[in-house]
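Weekly puzzle thread! Below is a chain. First person to post its structure in token form gets bragging rights.
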Amino acid sequence: MKLVNDPNSPAAIGPYSHAVKSGKLLFTSGQIPIDPLTSSLVEDEITVQTNQVINNLSSILESEGLSLENIIKTTVFLKDMNEFKEFNTVYEERFSNHKPARSTIEVASLPLDCRVEIEAIAEITSSQE
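Winning reply:
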């Protein structure tokens, strides 16, 4: 097992790593829409926040030589399921033809009162070890 902390991602706001690498899998912690340059939440709009969350996930994956294409499963936490359509539009654009398994859950609250959080499981191929 290897703990992963990406210097280009927002600092963890608690006692956890950005990700954990175990065998051929990388498990990311839930990412929220914090801009790593300002350490602040981005604009309070679901499409802007979704893009930032995916940027943060991408950065963690890239720190381990991976990309969104390596993701096999995501879990999405939305503060308001009424924003699912707008969230889904951005998610589909960013993942393009790659369609990992996904669960989407509406929650009462998220850290820093953001609108979306996403965690992912990525597969490490033999060429990426």
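Puzzle host: Confirmed. Bonus trivia for everyone else. Residues 2-128 form a domain with the 60s Ribosomal Protein L30; Chain: A; fold (CATH 3.30.1330.40).
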